[in-house]
Specification:
Shape: elongated
Structural class: alpha+beta
Number of helices: 2
Order of helices and strands: HEEEEEEEEHEEEEEEE
Number of strands: 15
Helix content: 25-40%
Radius of gyration: 40 Å
Length: 268
Amino acid sequence: MLIASSEPNPVETLTAWSTLGAAIATAASVIFIAWQIRLTRKSVEATEDTLKIARDEFKHGQILRADAQRTSIDAEMPRLTVEVTRQSTQVWRTDVTETDRYSRKETAAEVKAGDEFTTPRDNNTPLQVGVEISISNDGPRRARVRIDTQDRSHEVVINAGGTHTEWAKRVQPLSEWIEIARVRQQGEPGEERNMASIVYIYPGDVGAIEVHNVIQGGTFVEPVADNAGAWRIKSFERTPAEPNESLNAVAMPFTRTYWASRIENRPL
């Protein structure tokens, strides 16, 4: 009769220890790999932070260099001042001429305050107004400026300390002047027309372009009471009933665009 031994089988014991060792080794490998991944992630994050700091410093350096270039350009730009020195106080018909009594030349016929027009018959009648513009150059260099108005575009040279006077015209058909009046009766400003653009371009590839615009708003026509379709020219004089100017032109704040290279179309 065989009696079962309670002692562990050597083979089984060896197998158990081998299994335990393999498990411990696997766990250690997993822990080691996880630790390596963590170290790698920290290294990547540190590298990304370093790169971000470097990019920020580079961008900040670019901004400082661009600001320095703009300051240098500003110091060399002529200081131009644009003002409206005479508002519109007369209206002319450009489709009718008369002989000027002083120059004896044919000019557009003047339309007087109170003169009436009938719509729609006179809708296409061209009516002209004008404003006087003063362009002053306070230096430090002379300025060759381009002046764009409705009827022409030309260049003038204004020396440092000098002033140029320009007369800008605006011609629109009666129907458009009436439309502005109707819109203004509703409390809106109506069309505001660009009377002139004064453009200065800093010479060279690196520099700036400065633009001054003169805008005019308002109208000079009003409806004739109890006469449908009739409109007349208003008086340009201010009265207690009409404290505001019929037409008002103003020089807008100028804009200046800087260029790192105009040839390569790279703004600064």
